[in-house]
Amino acid sequence: MNTKRIVLALALSIGLFATSCSNDDNEGETLAPIEGKWEIVQVGTTINGVETLIDAPQNTSGCDRDYLNLKIDNTAITGDYDSTVSACALTTASGIYSRSHNNLTVVIDGVTKTSDIVNLTLKELKLKDANGIIAVYHK
């Protein structure tokens, strides 16, 4: 009986020790994969501490949503659907991206944009740029 208690106490103490350790390098960082095709669904900003989001006006009615495709090889492709010339014409641009902790930097056509990753799950990517502009993407 004493042996079982000692083994139980040892197992509990190892479990508590393992859960109390953390890796400071990833503090606050989400570890969900960022790669994938993300369709923009909402944009907005924070005013007086209140986040306000609206449906993304850049999405052309009747067309697929505009997107940001982040590939595993760190290439980025943006897709913009527009019906100005012809119905739901797709224009793409490509470049590169990098992720450093909770920052995403995308360089498309020589223009660099760095945003904070506010939320990243398997289905949602929420970014906030230096001007406070929020963009919400879904897979």
TrEMBL record:
PROSITE patterns: PROKAR_LIPOPROTEIN
Signal peptide: 1-23
Residue ranges of domain Lipocalin-like in the record: 34-127
A Pfam family recorded for this sequence: Lipocalin_4
Keyword NADP: no
InterPro entries linked: Lipocalin-like
Keyword Signal: yes
Swiss-Prot/TrEMBL keywords: Signal
This protein's name: Lipocalin family protein
